[in-house]
Amino acid sequence: MDTPSPIVPAVAGNAALAARDLKHVWHPCTQMHDHDIALESRVPMLPIVRGEGAWLVDADGRRYLDGISSWWTNLFGHANPRIAAALADQARRLEHVIFAGFTHQPAIELAEELVRVTPPGLSRVFYADNGSSAIEVALKMSFHYWLNQGHGQKTRFIALTGSYHGETLGALAVSDVALYRKTYAPLLLTPILAPSPDAYEGEPGESPAAVAARRLGELRVLLERHAHETCAVIVEPLVQCAGGMRMYHPDYLAGLRRLCDEFAVHFIADEIAVGFGRTGTMFACEQADVAPDFMCLSKGLTGGTLALSAVLTTEDVYAAFYAEYNAGKAFLHSHSYTGNPLACRVALETLAIFRDEPVLERNRALAAHLGARLGPLRDHPHVADVRQTGMIAAVELVADKRSREPWPAAERRGLRVYLHGLEHGALLRPLGNVVYFMPPYVVDTGEIDHLVDVATAGIEAAIA
Ligand SMILES: Cc1ncc(COP(=O)(O)O)c(C=O)c1O
Q: How far is residue 344 from each of residues 96, 126, 272, 314, measured CA to CA in Å?
């Protein structure tokens, strides 16, 4: 007689699963008290049982359109059949193998593909298993490169104000979002902060290109003072995502490349959130026609299916580590799941979808529709800015439109938009006062309309 498998879950509704979850599970980026069952205005803990395209379905059968691609990871829909089939096939062949001294076809082919699709000059691929780890790798590799070249005095990094590169200690050190950084500051390296070219923070009437030019001037001054002790400048190309979807002109990236060459510091492009078509081109750096010294990739790399990241770098960097063993120049960084075959295989399938389907072309039409639908919000008395770069769009809510005074964070206006969204079938998760849209690429225009309609009504509910 068959005994029931313990891993096949009993059919249970939202309330039962949420109660079990809250007994033992500690969730990320969450004040767990918000979910306290005793609170009248509690935030629901939603058990999701399946995904269908851009939709998530909870245990009570309610559906939510994933307007944020589940933390910006999902590109081609949840439970995508092509990706699921590749994953199942790989699971039957090889699930994992130590990646030191051993290799496998998915990792080899993925490295070949990544080198093919990323900007020219990036020819070496180092795998890690999440975005923050990729940043750790890039920071360590840049430092170690200079050390191997006899420049051990280079120990610092330049980061932009408002940047976010992850939450492990190294990645957090080069991040500048107070919410995540402030508490842990005593544990962190101190970066040199360069003013962000964020167009929203420009002078009244100043064009995004003029802001970029002014900020490059300020970066030059910092480099004149600090290049001798600086390993690299790290940026999120075009969009500073967790910092509030702040956007800037591609000229900044072109100027940054020139400055990094002039002052002999590396350029680290963190394309973890913006890579793989998000900004309208396969990689954001393409819009400035630049190749960085390090490019960090994760999130969309596997279409949002498994944790994987990759750091691409140049032959020059690789050569600085390549020496006879006792020279002691090898790069020292390892994770048990480095180059996991399952993750590499789904990443390959994700890249195959880019090859087989007109993804970027379709995204351009979807982005135009999203932009057109959001346009009228510019006139809203509590909206200071509506901005967009490709398949990322953001609406900046303010208490006062003329002074751009934000709502006090403690009022949690964005949370009201989130709760309204859940009640009306949309997953929107504002960053403070910034309501943003970053949907999977498989949405259609009707689904974009749904997101915008729910967000617009949610904004009204939030300011009431
Ligand atoms: C630009 C950027 N870099 C790094 C990270 C960190 O990635 P992970 O959450 O996989 O550690 C994120 C995550 O949101 C990100 O947006």
A: 10, 12, 16, 21
Asked if residue 432 has its Cβ within 6 Å of ligand 1, the reply is no
Indicate whether residue 129 lines ligand 1 (CB < 6 A): no
Whether pLDDT at 12 is above 90: no
Using the structure block, give the residue that is written with the tokens 């750790």: 136
Determine the residue type at 252.
Answer: Y
| CA 234 and chain centroid, separation | 14
Length of the chain: 464
CA angle 184, 188, 191 (to 5 degrees): 125
Q: Is there an atom of ligand 1 within 6 Å of 354 CB?
A: no
Closest to 462 measured CA to CA, from 427, 431, 420, 403 = 420
Tell me if 131 CB under 6 Å of ligand 1.
yes
pLDDT score for 9: 52
Residue nearest to atom 9 of ligand 1 (CA): 131
Task: Give the tokens for residue 226.
Answer: 């600090």
Contact 287, 279 (CB under 8 A): yes
Q: Judge contact between 342 and 92, C-beta under 8 A.
A: no
Q: How far is the CA of 404 from the centre of ligand 1 (A)?
A: 28
3 CB-near residues (< 8 Å, 6+ apart): none
- pLDDT tens-digit readout, 76-92: 999 999 999 999 999 99
Cα pseudo-dihedral 191, 195, 198, 200, rounded to 10: 130
Band (pLDDT 50/70/90 cuts) for residue 40 is confident
Residue 20 burial (CB count, 10 A): 13
The helix (H) or strand (E) run that includes residue 321 is helix 315-321
CA 354 to chain CA mean position, Å:
19
The token pair at 399 is: 């208490």
Closest protein CA for atom 3 of ligand 1: 165
Pocket-testing residue among 168, 180, 272, 274, ligand 1, by greatest number of atoms within 8 A of Cβ: 272
Q: Ligand 1: distance of its center to the CA of 117 in Å?
A: 21
pLDDT in tens, 369-397: 999 999 999 999 999 999 999 999 999 99
Residues 6+ apart with CB under 8 A from 274: 236, 237, 238, 239, 241, 283, 284, 392
